[in-house]
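CHAIN AND CONFORMATION:

***
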Amino acid sequence: MRGIEYRGLTRIEGPVVITGRRGNVGFNEVVAVYDRAEGRRLGRVVDMSEEWAAVQIFGNNTGLSADETRVEFLGRPMELRVGPGLLGRVFNGLGEPIDGYGNIFSSTCLDVNGLPINPYARTYPRDFIQTGISAIDGMNTLIRGQKLPIFSGNGLPHNRLAAQIVRQARILSVDEGANEQFVVVFCAMGVKYDVARFFLDDFERSGVLANVAVFLSLADAPSLERLVAPRCALTAAEYLAYEQNMHVLVVMTDMTNYCEALREVSSIRGEVPSRKGYPGYLYSDLASLYERAGKIEGSSGSITQLPILTMPNDDISHPIPDLSGYITEGQIVLDRELSQRGVYPPVAGLPSLSRLMKDGIGAGMTREDHKDVSSQLFAAYSKVRQIRNLASIIGEEELSDGDKRCLKFGEKFEHIFLTQGEYENRDIGRTLDLGWQVLAELPREELLRVKQEYIEKYLNKKE
């Protein structure tokens, strides 16, 4: 039976309470828990058997009594109220407004767990998103409908980079015109108050908050809220994309905090741990978030994901970045050595890639020489890294003139092409022109990945 209250709990284990199961109780069903001290609080069914159900409460267990507590199964999943008023608002991790402007005026509520998408209904991502950052637009291009994570580390400027992308990102589409609306859904999980304040102040100061829906789950919020926050954000994105026909960029930070909360909840439930204590279903759980990106036939909107995660000890083989790399279409890796040398953004040239880049660049989308310039920059910078390793062994003075010239190219690449101001917004034309500027440092006979017609058209013009 639904909507009937049951008195008493079998036992209390931290934020998880065990109660008798009666009727057709479902997994992830919302539960109301009543007690004399705190009144009504919500929870979610996280496990069950034929005789009992485990309910995790959104909060602590203060005031709960095994004898006096009442439990009501509400017969519905966790839902988010959506409507045209989503943009410009700030919500907590449960989708409740926290900006002081009251609830959204809408009767539409959507399941935060989303609905499965028929793979046959998906359309292939092809359209270019300009972030205004040369290291991304030029060499690791973001495509509309793609999921492209940023792998960072503690102390690296991923928060500044995320704020810059939110300020500057826009769509460029020759075929579909310029009347499409591009918006951002920003989700922060387990962040400190000063970090949340940084993002909100930056969005307000730059004037982009009106086109952003913000979901904040602070570090002192319950672990379960941290798990619900990205699902609320993605539900809002799906409404804006598939109901309002908008192009939505979803920025989620920090996925490492999300996975830590998942490990904590798994431990409380007594599940057998897998790699480094994370649950064995970490892969499928991350996939349930990442796979909610894309474009669908019948809707002109799209969802593009830019998850940000901090690699513990800068270990790219850690389960979180490792599994994320299997699910997503590439990665942007931030390099600590570049950051220490003053390069911003410190995007590592070699481990970063965008697997969908080839389908969203070229004539009619960015510029005809984009693919060749990117390939040549990647090949030349790869050689720079090899020569630097050699120089660390034999000394730079022992290098040949050609190797020294290659090292000079590496310096120009890092300080002219990669380095840009935090508020410097480069269009794709400017990015490619800077690419030709640094390629001019190399001998013509080494430009094997660039067509001769492009050399004559762009490189001769630079010289």
The mean pLDDT is 89. Residues 370-394 form the longest helix (25 residues). The first strand starts at residue 5 and ends at 7.
